[in-house]
Design brief:
The chain contains 2 helices and 10 strands; from the N terminus they run H-H-E-E-E-E-E-E-E-E-E-E. By secondary structure, it is of the alpha+beta class.
Length: 137
């Protein structure tokens, strides 16, 4: 009888640990709320919002799409009511993150955005970078 009880306790602990490992600790401390995404997609900076990054709110925590590097954006998005993130390469035009005319990500105090250039070498020959725009010299 003691062996049966011991086996049942071990099986119960194993099953409980399996269930717990399927969830994150935040699932136990927060009541899950809906996940909302201001740009409604996995595209970081869409053409309609070049001046400010999108954001995702999940469990009352807001995460903003942001520059990971000058050529990569960390994009937060919702899927199945859960917040996820990915890094988009700005020079991969297939993901639609920044339009090809504004391929660089610029960190700003009021939100990140897509810009045409960061330094003179980002512009074509005979142009310089002025206020993040390529202008003829």
């Amino acid at each position: 009888m003691k062996k049966i009880i011991a086996v049942l306790i071990i099986l119960s602990i194993f099953l409980l640990s399996s269930v717990v490992s399927a969830f994150s600790w935040s699932d136990f401390f927060f009541s899950p709320t809906s996940c909302t995404d201001t740009d409604s997609s996995q595209d970081g900076f869409q053409i309609s919002e070049l001046t400010t990054a999108g954001s995702v709110t999940y469990n009352n925590i807001i995460k903003y799409d942001s520059c990971e590097t000058p050529t990569k954006i960390r994009e937060y998005y919702c899927s199945g009511g859960i917040r996820y993130n990915t890094i988009d390469n700005l020079f991969d035009s297939s993901d639609g993150t920044c339009p090809s005319s504004t391929p660089y990500c610029l960190d700003l105090s009021n939100g990140d955005k897509c810009v045409r250039c960061l330094i003179n070498s980002n512009c074509a020959s005979g142009q310089t970078c002025s206020n993040n725009q390529c202008v003829s010299t």
